[in-house]
Amino acid sequence: MAYLLMFVTLLHLITLAMLFIATMEKSWWVWDGMENSDLWYNCRFDNSTGTWLCASSKETEWLQAVQVLMVLSVVFSSVSFLVFLGQLFTMSKGGLFYFTGLCQVFAGLTAFSAALIYTLHNKEILPTSKELTSGRFGYCFILAWVCVPLLLCSGVIYIHLRKKE
Q1: Would you call 138 helix, strand, or coil by DSSP?
Q2: Which of 36, 70, 101, 110 could be a cystine partner for 30, CB 3.0 to 4.6 Å?
Q3: Angle formed at CA 145 by CA 161 and CA 32, multiple of 5 degrees
């Protein structure tokens, strides 16, 4: 039981960190390594100064939906972890972690929705001045997709997990 509890806690912390990185980092779409776009900014690398020059992304409805869903995913996963810690110390023997599991499942569903919207509507989300065929999805986009099954699996594990002494 102790190993399962440590595994679930570690899985939760890893997925929470991955969600946070996917939401905040600068690599949802990449053009030739010198320009990239994320949920908040469009950036390009300036060779003369050696710095990234960033401008706010054009706020479209699809981009706002992805932003909101990714932030909600981080919030659901954070609340889930805090509730899990509270339940771990206050719940009676034999109790199930239903609320924790449901929050994790909601986090997985919101991350899935955000990644799916970005996949299907990247032409409307990304700057129109750049050719999309010369770019590719970045590592943050991939992290968001990797988080989806991990969040859903950890949510199911929490729902079936019983507190034992």
Answers
A1: coil
A2: 36
A3: 155
Residues forming a β-bridge with 53:
44
3-state secondary structure of 157: helix
User: Running along the chain, 165 residues long, what does each successive block of 10 average in pLDDT?
Assistant: 83 94 88 82 83 82 93 96 88 78 95 94 76 81 95 90 66
Give me the residue label for tokens 């970045």.
138
pTM here is: 0.87
Beta carbons of 39 and 29 less than 8 angstroms apart: no
Amino acid identity for residue 16 in this structure? L
Q: Where are the domains of the chain?
A: 2-23+59-160
User: 55 has which bridge partners?
Assistant: 42
Percent helix / strand / coil, the chain, rounded to 5: 65, 15, 20
